[in-house]
Amino acid sequence: MASTEKKKKSGSSREKVRPAGFPTREQVVDFIATSDQPAGKREIAKAFGLKGQEKIALKALLKDMADEGLIDIGPARAFHKMGGVPKVTVLRIVDVDDTTLIATPERWEAEGQPAPRLRVVERGKRGALTIGDRILARTEEAGRGWVAHPMKKLAKASEELLGVVEEGEGGKLWLRPVDKRIRRDTPISDVGTAKKGDLVLAEPVGRPPRITARVTDILGDPFAPRSFSLIAIHKHGIPHVFSERVEEEAVSASKLALHEEKREDLRHLPIVAIDPVDARDHDDAVWAAPDDDPGNAGGYKAIVAIADVSYYVRPGSALDREARKRGNSVYFPDLVVPMLPHQLSSDMCSLRAGEDRAAMACHLVVDAAGKVKSWRFSRAVIRVAAVLAYEDAQAAIDGEKPIDLLEPALKPLWACWALLRKARDKREPLALDLPERRVVLDEFGKIVSVAVRERLDAHMLIEDYMIAANVAAAKALEQKKAPVMYRVHEPPSRDKLVALKDYLATFDIEFALGQVVKPSTFNRLIERVGEAEEKPQIMTQILRSQTQAYYTPSNMGHFGLALGSYAHFTSPIRRYADLLVHRALVGAYGLELPAPKGGVIPERSSLSGEDMENMGRVGEMISQHERRAMEAERETIDRYVAAFLAAHVGDLVEARITGVQSFGFFATVEGLGGDGLVPVSTLGDERFFHDEAGRALEGVESGDRYTVGQRLQLRLVEADPINGALRFELPDALPQRPSFRKDRARPGIKRGRPGNIRHIGAKRGKHRR
């Protein structure tokens, strides 16, 4: 009591010396809370007309109020109500609630109070923001919570740093980044309990140019099994842990009755699933048989059965919100980050052999010309006869491996596919057969091999059945004027076509810009190239000229597949877009089943009103999540390739030049992938011209020319598994700095253009061909 009285006297005595008309604590707090801009000392003084000594008194008052917990200081020395949020502040988007992005203050220092979660209200063009983004936002209280109005998307440069602790000269610690695009190490000012060699998360401290790193989390040994995937998960902010509530709901959903009596019973059919040998889940199975309808002589009936995920994952459920937040499963060589918990993704929704499973069946009628004459959809119960690897199915059809299902299942599937392929060939979709890398690991997570995945007829067969079902789903929904989440692939932009024309000119290949560009245009181009040495890089460049496919409720066709209407229907275990298409089919065709009892699982499995209202926003979000997954998967494979090649440092490898810059050229190891740099400083003492148009480096005296697509032998001098980077030199190059070792220090690398390079602009380069 005495101490309280003493504090009151202290506060009142200080206020006695303040000028008349000076604002009270309540007035200051009210002004800060209602101001529509950041309220710093200057703004407060101006609002109350304070001058001279009054400003000094205001400074003391604000200090007192901060000490008493009434206000707190925010960015740019602005004040805000304690426990509140600054009017303008930096936020990080951390979650999505249905379709509303949720953000929290990047800095939150209110002791004993959890950081507030603000609803992000986007204006104008939507879809520019996603989980992990940083924004400068104006904030305001709304009802019982806070909302944020984005003003500017901030660069990610000041985000958490992910890297490995290394020791340099004199015992100084450095953070080596895992992102190979970051070319400088960062000195560590606070290592905490991390040790040399640890993979850590750190935050940048200070201001340029004196930025240091403060370690915030220790992730462990970067060379341990699964660490390469862990790096990608943390770098890209991929959600990888299911909450207890979501796990519990998955268990409850997996126990739902199948309602066999209300489903079409297809258990008597020899339906088979054909998947990669290392598949973690099986969400599609196929069946075909000759059509016994006299009106379809020579035609076939086919069924594409897809796991009925919409029956288990319903609108408004915790499972649904989590699946939307993830957007898709992410597949790494050593693990999968599933869109749905294990109880569903690899158990109840996985079409296992010999077990009754709920399915959404797409029934197709194919005529003798390969055209799909009709389709229908049903909720069914199936029992897969066998799950076959692509290689085993192919071996069986080629007569190299006996299998009981050859006559009843595989031969009819191949015969029906021969018809579907007729229609595909007539349609002439884009035919880019580019190799796909496959990393093979042993049971301990160690690399056994990195190889190009073989492309078999079995792969193309399943692909064509899936495309037929996807087209049928889109058209079936269009017939009912129901919402469709289309898979859209727009034609290439003119800018990309101009760039492709310039590139092809370096090979003396003409490409007319005035023509109507179709997928067949590029197919004819590839045919003209034939089996020339430069075919792989020309195909790669054609791929780069294409736009990126995305999800949207607005139909703009699929250029690459030469289709007018296309939706993803066949993988609802791993893609949220497919789940929405399933829900739309349930609603459009009256396929709802009896509601679950108990109230834990929502009643309906068709599209909700919220699903329909937010299709555009959801399409943008899941398209972003797909790009995030693709980048994370590609980077992880690059790290595995570098780890595999680390045992071959010093060896000569067959390589192909994939890119040329003023500072050197990039090359990839034939058959493995993984780009590495050949620095121009290792090409000899002569000067080199950078021929931008010709995409080449050319020696002034020797005339030696290094061009995109050129094959040559290179010596591997560095393979860094942490960031997936490789470095090469010419076989006869002078020794450079030492190759990668797990325990070596990394000296600083000199930046800037080497002394032996002279740049040629695009115009001048054209005359040097």
What features would you describe in this structure?
- There is one protein chain.
- With 769 residues, the chain is of the alpha+beta class.
- The chain has 19 helices and 35 strands.
- The strands form ten sheets. The protein has a five-stranded mixed β-barrel. Strands 9-10-11-13-12 form a five-stranded mixed beta barrel. Strands 14-21-20-17-16 form a five-stranded mixed sheet.
- A hairpin with a 6-residue loop joins strand 12 and strand 13 (212-220).
- The chain starts with a helix and ends with a helix.
- The model is unreliable at 1-19 and 736-769 (pLDDT under 50).
Write the SSE topology.
Layout: H1 2-16, H2 25-34, E1 39-40, H3 41-47, H4 53-67, E2 71-73, E3 78-81, E4 88-97, E5 100-105, E6 118-120, E7 134-142, E8 145-154, E9 161-167, E10 173-177, E11 186-190, E12 199-205, E13 212-220, H5 227-236, H6 244-254, E14 264-265, E15 272-275, E16 284-290, E17 300-307, H7 309-312, H8 318-326, E18 330-331, E19 336-337, H9 342-348, E20 356-366, E21 372-383, E22 386-389, H10 390-397, H11 406-427, E23 436-441, E24 447-453, H12 457-479, E25 486-488, H13 494-505, H14 519-529, H15 535-545, E26 550-552, H16 576-588, H17 609-613, H18 615-645, E27 652-661, E28 664-669, E29 673-679, E30 688-691, E31 696-699, E32 705-707, E33 711-720, E34 725-729, E35 757-760, H19 762-766
Parallel strand pairs: 6-8, 11-13, 14-21, 15-22, 29-34, 30-35
Antiparallel strand pairs: 1-3, 2-3, 4-5, 4-7, 5-6, 7-8, 9-10, 9-12, 10-11, 12-13, 16-17, 17-20, 18-19, 20-21, 23-24, 25-26, 27-28, 27-33, 28-29, 30-31, 31-32, 33-34
Helix pairs in contact: 5-18, 6-9, 11-12, 12-16, 13-15
